[in-house]
Amino acid sequence: MSEIAFRVVFTGILREGENRREAISRLSNNFGLDFHQLRKLLSGGTTVVKSYANDSEARRLVSVFNRIGWEAKIVRSLKQRMPSATVSSVRDKAKKGIENVTRISRLSARDGSCTVQIPTRWRRMTNLNRHAVIQAGDCKANEFCVVLWKKVQNIGSNSLAKNYCGAQLQQCVNRVDDGRIIRCPVAFKHRGFNGFVGEISAKIESVEVNYLIACAVVNERVFTQFIWCEADQYKENRLQFLKMASTIEVQSEATPQHGGLGRMSRRRRRMRA
Question: 76 and 128, same structural domain?
Fold first, then answer.
C-alpha cells in the first residue's frame, strides 16, 4: 500500500516586499549554506528540500522559509524514492539546518563572570538591558537573550531556588505589558546546567512575545537568563532556547549585577520585524 508524502518545495521566489540581498543572507545563516551552495539553490527552478509523513511538519518548514523571506510550498504525492540526480549536497546541507543543527559560538560576559553558547548568526548587543552581563540576538529573526546575576545567601535548597525563579517570573510579568506566566518554574537539568526554568508571555508594541527564563545557583550567585522571540515562532525555537540556557558556564567572581529585566525603553525593547 502506497504512503502519502508531503514534500516541501523551495521555489526560489522572494516574498513581496523582501530585499533580495537580505533574504539571501538569512537563507545562508539559517541553513548554513556557503556561496556555491546558495548559487546552486537559486540557479532557477524549484527544489524539493524535505519530505515528511505528515503535513504539520511540512507546514512548519514552509513557515521557516516564509519567515526569512522566501516562498515555499507543499506538494502532496505518493511516497517513493527520489531519483539520485535530484538529491544534491545543497539539499543535504539545507536539511541539517532545517533540523536545527545550528552553528554556534561561545560569548563571554563583559565582567568575565560566565559564558554562553549562541548561534553564530546572533550578534552581541548593548541596548537590551543596561544591567546585563551578556546581551545578544538576531534583530532580523527577532530572537534575543540577556544574562544577569546577583549575590545570594542561604539559597542552597531546591525549594528556595525554585521560589527565586518564580519571583523572577512574577517580577518580569509586572514590568511588561499584558504579562502572564504560561509555565511555572520546573526543575531543568541538562549538560552542566542544574536549575529551574519558567515561561511568560507579554506584548511589546502590540507584538506578542514569549520568554524563557532560566535560573541557576552557582557558588552563592544566581544566574538568570532571559531568552525570547515572537510568540508565533516560540514553539519552533523553544528546544533551541533550552539548549542555549544549558550551555552557561560560570567563570569567576565579579561585580554583582541587578536581577530582573530592569527598565528598558520601548525603543530598546522593540522587536523589529
Answer: no
Amino acid at 31: F
User: What mean pLDDT is predicted for residues 138-160?
Assistant: 82
Last residue of a domain, one of 78, 98, 118: 98
**Backbone φ and ψ of 154, nearest 5°:** 55, 45
| More confident position, 121 or 45 | 121
Place of cell 542552597: 156
Q: How many domains does the chain have?
A: 2
Cα(133)–Cα(191) distance, integer angstroms: 22
**CA dihedral sign, ordered 56, 57, 58, 64:** positive
Cell of 266: 520601548
What's the pTM value of the predicted model, to 2 decimals? 0.58
- The Cα 261–Cα 273 span in angstroms is 22
Cβ partners under 8 Å of residue 214, min gap 6? 188, 193, 195, 196, 197, 224, 225, 227, 242, 245, 248
DSSP result, 216-252: EEETTEEEEEEEEEEHHHHHHHHHHHHHHHHT-EE--
Residues 157 and 52 in one domain: no
Q: Which residue has the higher pLDDT, 266 or 182?
A: 182
- Residue 228: which of 106, 151, 103, 129 has the closest Cα? 129
165 and 261 in a single domain? The answer is: yes
Answer for the pair 136, 145: CB distance below 8 angstroms, yes or no: yes
pLDDT tens track for 164-205: 889 989 988 998 889 999 999 999 988 778 889 999 999 887
pLDDT single digits (tens) 34-66: 777 787 778 766 788 888 888 888 899 999 999
Query: Residue 9: which domain range?
Result: 4-98
DSSP letter for 82, please: P
